[in-house]
Amino acid sequence: MRNVLRWQAKLDRAALRLGHVGSFCCAFLFFPVARGSSLLPLIGLTSEASIKYHVWLGNLVMLFFTAHGLCYIVFWASTDQIHEMLKWTRTKVANVPGELALLSGLVMWVTALPRVRRQMFELFFYAHHLYALFLVFFALHVGVAFFGSILPGVFLFMVDRYLRFLQSRVRVRLVSARLLACDAVELNFCKSPHLTHSPMSTVFINVPCVSRLQWHPFTVTSSSSLEPDRLSVVVKRAGRWTEKLYETISSLPPSQPGHLDVSVEGPYSQATPASFLQYDSLVMISGGGGITPFISVIRELVHRSGTAAEAATPSLLLIAVFKTSADLAMLDLIVPASGGFSDISRLELRIEAFVTRESVPSAGDVVAIAHKVPTEEVLFKPSPSHAPIAPVLGHNGWLWLAAVVSSSFFIFLLLVGAVQRLYIYPVDGNSNRVYPWAARTLLNLLLLCVGIAVAASAAVLWNKRRRAEEAKQVENVATPASSPATWLDKPRRGDAEVESSPLHYLEQATAVHFGRRLDLRRMLLEIGGTNVGVMASGPPELLEDVATICSSGSASNLHFASISFTW
């Protein structure tokens, strides 16, 4: 190597420092995507809301690592050392795995761009599995000692990922499905009463007969307080996967119980009920299928309003925007298929529904529209291999998670110590110049995986045995024999039972506006009260409009409660 110029020496030092800064950012990269981590709730973050921090950190990591690699390439080219790009040293920093790690990261970075992710989500999803190669090549590049600087986040992510893998291997019990007139289907699963979730939680669903590889996130519409043994999600027919799922379920005969294998990951909480109770009034604004997160909120507050021990619940205003009158069937979902609704009249609820693409039909047309595709319910027969959705680590999940994390790391340290003393030390001593870095790094990664697999598998199997008796008790749980009528099917009987039914109350609380555009600003500014919470779910433009109105200062009583659905 010839003498380098001053600018070349500075470039060499800059490249090294860029790598260190990128590694520092990488140390925090995996914390936000550990969905079941106990660290996120401690700092007030949910698994969905933390995704934006993962995106920011990912951009920083790739920015610094790309600059790190380019600076070294320029340095080597300017000093006639371009052959260094193909160098894989035995006991020092290896360049080839660093370049492979950078290439893996660049593929993930490009496919994660907003336009690519929205238009080709499957490409983004599968490309992101290159994180495994990225981590392995990064560890081979820097060595096991420096890899320890990012190990805490990687370790917690690996524990979470393996637990999610174990949960996804279980086939869950699907009790029934409601087919709505708006080409949507509500899936009702059996769940363990020990599994509790907050409103607007998210689950990931895999249906092998549709696709063995694809997992799709959906918002939970049920309330674990109101329905302790049920978990429901709504799937809107939009896209190849959802269309095939809808056709599969709709082809099943309603008169005979069907069979469908489904796997579930989650649920992952979005918000706590206490965040809704802090307001005197709550305004929920939805566009299209964006109404589904608010169904769980309404069900939760219905339960709380009927419980004398609970504090006063806020009054609710649901502003729902639909394209066609068939989409009004989404309002049916407010009443759970399992029944058992509390006295909904205790809740001060008002629904303003806007149908933007249709003019006002006659009363007879409304009923006709509602019954073009009648609401059907398909029942599913229980299978001995299907189990209720349950916490992967039991109802004391946080204690078990702490035990898994601590015991798996202890096993890892014990194995590393034994291998170091009995296998590596006789060869290398303490010189770190004989035993190859690559072999040492791969061995440590393998032992880390072994420690996690042993501890997590033992905890899951222990809890699975404890749930066996519970599963036997609920496997033959009764399912409803008929589906509830639609809210548009107005009752014609005058008896008190019909007049006091939840569907009748919802009909009275709902005002449908045909052919009118929503004057959102006027409606929000006309809302009275001193402490009004405002939430929005739907297209990004809708969320931006609501946030702009609430922050404009025109109404000091409006407080925008941001929610995030960015899976």
From TrEMBL:
Gene3D superfamilies referenced in this protein's UniProt entry, alphabetically: Nucleotide-binding domain of ferredoxin-NADP reductase (FNR) module
Keyword Oxidoreductase: yes
One Pfam entry name: NAD_binding_6
Main location: membrane
Recorded superkingdom: Eukaryota
Stored PROSITE patterns: FAD_FR
Membrane disposition: Multi-pass membrane protein
Location(s) in or outside the cell: Membrane
CDD domains documented for this protein: NOX_Duox_like_FAD_NADP
Gene Ontology cellular component annotations, sorted alphabetically: plasma membrane
Membrane spanning residue stretches: 21-43, 55-75, 96-113, 133-159, 398-423, 443-462
Keywords: Membrane, Oxidoreductase, Transmembrane, Transmembrane helix
A GO molecular-function descriptor: ferric-chelate reductase activity
Segments forming domain FAD-binding FR-type: 167-274
Protein name, per record: FAD-binding FR-type domain-containing protein
Organism: Oryza meridionalis
